[in-house]
Design a protein that fits this description.
Chain B: Belongs to the ABC transporter superfamily. The structure holds 3 protein chains of 3 kinds. By secondary structure, chain B is of the alpha/beta class. Chain B has 14 helices and 12 strands. The radius of gyration of chain B is 21 Å and the shape is globular. Chain C is mainly alpha-helical. Classes of the chains: A alpha/beta, B alpha/beta, C mainly alpha.
Chain lengths: ~375, ~350, ~325
């Protein structure tokens, strides 16, 4: 199947016909579309913007600025694929997650689910769409209502969407879901505090699956878990994807987990995408300096790598999203920055010098001076 | 039984080192007495660290790694925590026999601690300069002006840009990475011989984490201090540690020099951990998952505490707690089947 | 037999270590060659422990707390005699025998007589009714009004929140005693209701602040976001997810307030602004007895003692409830 090719990480070289996306017309084609012959994406995000106004004043509120949490993000999500969004705290990745599931309304831009813009929907129409896009939360301790039984928690989606399952069948469905996520179906009457972190995360995943969604947005689903439990949940997510043909948007700060689970990866910095490509393109052939710095900073569990690793130590901290730098947002920490970077914001497109180069280096990267640099050892 | 013959005599502590260690923890035991029962948070832990050496204590939440450090520092919350046995020999003296006042003088001056959450470890109503300077005023009796100058010096030492201008700023005005640097500066202030860092970079972003870890390692080398790094992150450990002690359910299950541990772990738990973390440089394999979950410390399984989750479990594991076998120079493992584990390594 | 022992329903172990139900995590993805077969050692099934909600856990804790048991017994006793004072006091609280005025303890009249020769014991017993009625009704009213207004303000935020907070501030600003003297002196009724109404009016802002705060906290929990992401409406989120998780602090503050409201009623009655004769109230009796504190202290000490024990019982109950419901302990 065509979409399999598109999503499969193992297909080393992207299909030859990868379009060089026109930066001029956003809204027509997303950058980083893996293959020209891929089917219609299930989710298309175009120029998504979310600004949180900063106000001052007690009675009469006056807007004094805005936190530019998300500022022009575009990507596609295909059926059965996992798209990773990585970045440091404050880069806006969690806001993207909230926008995708409708917990926040975008300031501008579109989120198209099967061709229909869902960002402007409300009421009944929004509720209907929500069945298809579900979320898994980071913190297994606060994402389950402590006063409800596990059965009520997993069954709640059916109460909100009564058309999804007839009343008599709900209990059986809940027990099936528990079994699917590897928990004993007898646990329906227990309360969340009787479970460990890993088990609670399974309950949260079961709730996300209840309505048989097509897309699951997972916001740091394993980062609150112990190392030895993390891999159980990662494996579960992978198994469920195969079983139910799910598409994942997997948001995380742990680049190793993202590499493991994702087919394509978007690197986010201060509300914008810095680079977008398949896992091979991003991890082995990064062209954006931020991606390179991020990758080189990840501690690798191999003491032999200590000496011969290419480490890029960034200076300083991430600037405030309320007052981001002009032009390229990364320029204040970038060792390549020049005057041009402050004036012109680099678009997310395949850099001119790589347009004719075949191979994995040809992928969108928002940098005026993109060049390949391998920072992950023994790729 | 075969495994008995194969195994060398178990030894209580790790192999002796040539130079007397800076810190030698022997058979430490800490209990938490709660309503739900007695939790043996630390159950016979021994480790040692020499000057200029970095010991990483690796473990998951509830493994007892932080509690051990708190006991060493003498900052254990009591109740509910109670030290029920063991010795903490620091520079030749058993700290547990010292008077409260003597212990207090060692703390801060000779050994210092860095915590995970810098924001809550710093006093929000005092400027960082005042907090740093206070250490000198209290311990060395210097003047305010002198203390402030020393504070600036310290801030420069931990590479805080524009230290002179920022010495009067308050903790919330610094970013997370800068705050952690201030914590490091406070720990360094009185020139300690030992630093205990409890998850020092866990709360930080990965690019900032690298900066802070590099700084810590650099200072440790420069000042030839002993460093105990407490963490759950196998990547961070690989980057800086000399020796690793792996803890599970209040016990040390394996100690080894860092290269050997990653190359050939001698305990199934260590091996499971190494196999279960996704790698930045590899793709495609299914992750190994250690089954089950860490035990509740009020009800640790009998025998080897890891046996319900262990792929190599046999009858003996369910009844006999394994001693720490010496499996090589400077290496120990608390597994009856350490040989099989070692041989099965990659 | 060497299966891992199943932890009893252990709760509150900080992170990670909370009650382990030793099943389920076995993802049994044993890919390592030579590993023991997955079925060899996985923990077996768990005997079905009784599922306990946080409420029943709290109740369980309360029952083991001697402070709660003692104060609850005292309160149950007080409530019973408030409803049926005849059970332990057979006399008539209004019967005056001036010949015995101010006399001390004597057989059949253990607490002695007051200035009008009425039996102090009987009056102390009958006085419980007014105190308990005022305390319970005022607390119920203040709790309902306060949690409704505070809860809605916390949930919806924005201008309604601002408006409500200002109104609450205004009521906070009214001096209780002075306000009571002014407000209640305008009312002629001799029933308990004006006093109840006044206490509700002054008491709700305290509850509404607590309710608002705990709703704001509960609202930020991921499970509320999760419900919203599922498409849940405001009603469901408020009733199903927020209210049950926000009500505990309100219960605590209301229980403690009950004690202070009883004391407030007595204070107002003592000053002549609260309840008025012929209602029997400890406050009134203390007031009538106070000029004779040197000559006949028993007239004051018995009703004052009853008042103190009642107030103390409710405050201790509130403390015990707070300990049981405090999420930091679990």
């Amino acid at each position: 199947m065509a979409h399999d090719d598109a999503g499969a990480p193992s297909s080393g070289t992207p299909a030859p016909g990868t379009p060089a996306p026109g930066a001029g017309q956003p809204g027509t084609s997303a950058p980083g579309t893996p293959a020209a012959d891929s089917p219609e994406p299930v989710l298309e995000v175009r120029d998504l913007v979310k600004h949180f106004p900063l106000t001052r004043g007690v009675l009469v509120k006056k807007q004094v600025g805005a936190v530019q949490a998300v500022d022009g993000v575009s990507f596609d999500l295909h059926r059965g694929e996992t798209l990773g969004i990585v970045g440091e705290s404050g880069c806006g990745k969690s806001t993207v997650a909230k926008l995708l599931v409708g917990l926040e309304h975008p300031t501008a831009g579109q989120i198209r689910y099967r061709g229909e813009d869902i960002s402007t929907l409300s009421g009944r129409a929004l509720k209907a769409v929500r069945r298809n896009i579900q979320m898994v939360f980071q913190d297994p301790y606060t994402s389950l209502n402590p006063r409800m039984t596990v059965g009520d928690i997993i069954g709640e989606p059916y109460e909100i969407h009564p058309e999804a399952a007839p009343k008599g069948e709900r209990r059986r469905r809940v027990q099936e879901l528990l079994e699917v996520v590897g928990l004993d179906p007898e646990y329906v009457n227990r309360y969340p505090h009787q479970f460990s972190g890993g088990q609670r995360q399974r309950i949260g995943i079961a709730r996300g699956l209840a309505l048989r969604p097509e897309i699951i947005v997972a916001d740091e689903p394993v980062s609150a878990l112990d190392v030895s439990v993390q891999s159980q949940v990662v494996n579960l997510l992978e198994r469920l994807q195969d079983e139910f043909g799910l598409s994942y948007v997997f948001i995380a700060h742990d680049l190793s987990v993202v590499r493991h689970i994702c087919d394509r990866v978007a690197v986010m910095y201060l509300g914008r995408l810095a680079e977008l490509g398949t896992d091979e393109q991003i991890y082995e052939h990064p062209t954006h300096p931020y991606t390179q710095a991020l990758l080189s900073a990840v501690p690798v569990p191999d003491p032999d790598a200590r000496t011969h690793r290419d480490r890029i130590l960034l200076a300083g901290d991430v600037p405030s999203p309320a007052n981001p730098p002009s032009g390229c947002r990364f320029r204040t920490r970038c060792w390549k920055a020049q005057d041009r970077c402050a004036e012109i914001s680099p678009p997310l497109e395949v850099p001119a010098e790589f347009r004719r180069t075949p191979g994995p280096v040809r992928h969108p990267s928002a940098c005026h001076f993109a060049e390949e640099r391998t920072v992950v050892p023994n790729g | 039984m075969t495994h008995q013959e194969a195994a060398p005599e178990p030894t209580g502590t790790a192999a002796a080192v040539a130079e007397p260690p800076l810190l030698d923890v022997r058979d430490l035991r800490v209990e938490f007495r709660t309503r739900d029962g007695v939790a043996k948070a630390v159950n016979g832990v021994s480790y040692h660290v020499a000057r200029g050496q970095t010991l990483a204590v690796l473990g998951e939440s509830g493994s007892g790694k932080s509690v051990t450090a708190q006991a060493v520092m003498g900052i254990l919350d009591s109740p509910p925590g109670f030290l029920t046995g063991g010795e903490i020999v620091f520079q030749g003296r058993d700290l547990l026999t010292l008077r409260r006042e003597e212990r207090r003088r060692i703390r801060g001056a000779k050994m210092a601690m860095i915590f995970q959450d810098a924001l809550s470890s710093l006093n929000p109503v005092l400027s960082v300069g005042a907090q740093l300077g206070e250490m000198f005023q209290v311990h060395e009796g210097v003047s305010r002006k002198e203390a402030r100058a020393r504070a600036v010096e310290l801030m420069e030492r931990v590479k805080i840009p524009a230290a002179r201008e920022r010495v009067g700023d308050y903790p919330h005005q610094f970013s997370g990475g800068m705050r952690q640097r201030i914590m490091i500066a406070m720990a360094l202030a009185l020139g300690p011989d030992l630093i205990i860092a409890d998850e020092p970079t866990t709360a930080l972003d990965v690019t900032v984490q690298a900066q802070v870890m590099d700084l810590l390692a650099e200072l440790q080398r420069e000042l030839t201090m002993g460093l105990i790094l407490i963490t759950h992150d196998l990547g961070v450990v690989a980057d800086v540690a000399d020796t690793i002690a792996v803890m599970y359910a209040g016990r040390i299950v394996e100690t080894a020099p860092v290269h050997q541990l990653y190359k050939a772990p001698a305990h199934p738990y260590t091996r499971g951990l190494l196999d279960s973390i996704p790698r930045l440089d590899q793709k495609g394999r299914q992750l190994y998952a250690i089954k089950g979950m860490p035990p509740n410390l009020t009800a640790v399984p009998p025998g080897c505490p890891f046996h319900p989750r262990c792929p190599l479990v046999r009858d003996v594991c369910r009844t006999d707690p394994p001693p720490l076998y010496e499996v090589g120079p400077g290496r120990t493992s608390a597994c009856h089947f350490w040989k099989e584990t070692l041989d099965g390594a990659r | 037999m060497p299966e891992p022992s199943v932890p009893k329903e252990a709760i509150g172990h900080g992170d990670g270590g909370s009650a382990a139900l030793a099943l389920g995590e076995a993802e049994s993805l044993e890919r390592r060659p030579g590993a023991a077969p997955p079925g060899a050692g996985p923990p077996g099934g768990v005997p079905a422990g009784k599922p306990r909600s946080l409420w029943s856990d709290a109740w369980h804790d309360l029952c083991r707390n001697p402070v709660f048991v003692v104060s609850a017994l005292v309160i149950v006793f007080l409530v019973i005699i408030a409803i049926w004072p005849q059970l332990i006091a057979t006399g008539n609280p209004y019967r005056a025998d001036l010949a015995k005025a101010q006399q001390g303890s004597q057989p059949g009249h253990p607490f002695g007589f007051d200035t009008q020769g009425r039996d102090v014991y009987t009056r102390v017993v009958y006085g419980a009714r007014a105190s308990i009625t005022v305390g319970v009704c005022a607390t119920t009213g203040a709790a309902l009004l306060g949690s409704l207004l505070g809860g809605l303000a916390g949930f919806f935020g924005g201008w309604s929140d601002t408006l409500l907070s200002r109104i609450a501030d205004i009521f906070f600003g009214i001096p209780v005693i002075l306000g009571g003297l002014v407000f209640l002196s305008m009312v002629a009724s001799t029933t308990v209701w004006p006093v109840v109404g006044f206490i509700v009016l002054l008491g709700w802002p305290q509850v509404s602040r607590i309710a608002r705060g705990s709703v704001v906290t509960a609202k930020q929990n991921d499970y509320v976001q999760a419900a919203r992401a599922l498409g849940a409406g405001n009603g469901r989120m408020l009733l199903r997810h927020i209210a049950p998780n926000a009500v505990a602090p309100v219960i605590v503050v209301a229980t403690i307030a009950l004690g202070t409201f009883i004391a407030l009623e007595a204070t107002l009655s003592y000053l002549g602004a609260g309840l008025k004769p012929p209602t029997i109230s400890w406050g009134i009796d203390i007031s009538t007895a106070s000029p004779y504190i040197r000559s006949a202290p028993h007239m004051l000490l018995w009703p004052a003692g009853a008042l103190s024990i009642t107030v103390l019982a409710f405050i201790m109950l509130g403390d015990a409830v707070r300990d049981a419901l405090d999420p930091k302990l679990r």
